[in-house]
Design brief:
TIM Barrel, 8 strands, alpha/beta, 8-stranded parallel β-barrel, 11 helices
């Protein structure tokens, strides 16, 4: 199965006590699929995967699968521990997810042979598509294009979520997915299949139009530029969670070490939503 379109890296809704909110998760899944999302990534960075237990992740995978109505559900199963990534990938596959998102191992900083061995081990644990998540700004390690080509030769490794801004190009054997919202238009222009995105929580229909209406792609991109900048005023997912809450889809707060948006940040987020016509100015 090829992965394409607007795939939202969904936030994880929490209740007032910081527990995963199943009710909030169901409501968010429905909101996203009704507003431009073709598929969902669960328990990725935006979903605060690093602070979710395996039990919480597996329950989220199960719950989102039950509500997705056949839309692709991609499970965040990667970490810097290959054995743990393999174990979680096996469990997610048993639940029936449509693919797994596997981040470049961070902190322990493997060399090329280690990166290849890591992805080989994870790919052997599943018969579902494996999406390589290359994000050097968080992982320190960058996977160059020649190494991506090698990874693309591994069975089941079928796509890359590319979150570096330079030297981005289609790789034979890998679906190319924009890993930063600002890159979507450029990735589509170079023949990419879509993106794993964050702002699609709030402007999903417009991002979907960038695929459906290529003649208007640059105009739409330019119209979103200010809002996308605001979604980066502090570390993800703080701004998008604040924005989604403002729009009336209750997703709660964040788990430490992530913290709530400051008053100044909230003011900027609200102002951006108002300028974009998503909220009425008070």
């Amino acid at each position: 199965m090829g992965l394409s379109g607007i795939i939202t890296a969904m936030v994880t809704p929490f209740d007032a006590r910081g527990r995963v909110s199943e009710e909030g998760t169901v409501a968010l899944v429905r909101h996203l699929l009704d507003n431009g999302s073709d598929g969902l990534v669960v328990a990725g960075t935006t979903g605060e995967g690093p602070t979710l237990s395996d039990e919480e992740k597996l329950r989220l995978f199960e719950l989102v699968l039950s509500e997705a109505g056949g839309a692709p559900v991609i499970a965040g199963t990667g970490s810097n521990d290959t054995a743990h990534s393999v174990h979680l990938t096996e469990q997610a596959t048993e639940l029936g997810v449509d693919g797994v998102l596997v981040v470049t191992p961070y902190y322990n900083k493997p060399n090329r042979r280690g990166i290849i061995a890591h992805f080989e081990a994870v790919a052997e644990a599943t018969d579902r598509p494996v999406v390589v998540y290359n994000i050097p700004s968080r992982c320190v390690v960058d996977i160059p294009n020649d190494l991506l080509r090698e990874l693309g030769e591994i069975p089941n490794v079928s796509a890359v979520k590319q979150a570096r801004f330079e030297d981005v190009e289609p790789i034979e054997g890998l679906d190319l997915l924009a890993g930063n919202d600002e890159m979507l238009a450029s990735v589509l222009d170079m023949g990419g299949q879509g993106g794993i995105l964050v702002a699609s929580h709030i402007v999903g229909p417009e991002m979907r139009r960038m695929i459906d209406e290529p003649e208007s792609r640059r105009e739409i991109h330019d119209s979103l530029a200010g809002l996308l900048r605001t979604m980066s005023i502090t570390t993800n997912p703080t701004p998008v969670k604040a924005a989604v809450n403002m729009l009336g889809v209750e997703v709660g707060g964040l788990r430490l070490p992530m913290v709530e948006a400051s008053e100044d940040e909230l003011f900027e987020i609200r102002a951006a939503l108002e300028r974009h016509g998503l909220l009425s100015a008070v």
